[in-house]
Amino acid sequence: MNRLFKTQIILISASIALTLISFSAMAALPEPWDPQEAARWSVQERLSRLRALSAQLKKASPEQRQAYKESLRHKLAQLSVQERKALHDQLHAQWKVLSSEEKKQLRQERRKLHKALDPS
What we know:
Elements: H1 2-25, H2 35-38, H3 43-59, H4 62-77, H5 81-97, H6 100-117
């Protein structure tokens, strides 16, 4: 009985260690970008950051994705109505001058990001 107990303790310890290793191996998601800073990025910079974030979100756990979405919503909610309006106007003006290919790429990356946030 004593030998069985030791074996069980070893197995439990090993499973706990593996669980901790797997959780630490998951890359922590970055903080959501500051919306006003992100609006100043070039199209290529925005595309590369969207691609990187989508890849990170695909690897993240559902809890991490949910926490990221909540943090993003919180950042947007912190903006005043005037700041949100100015941000919208700035992004809309940028969108108007983009080529059709750039618009297509941005749409595709946004879809990938939304899919990565809600992979259901």
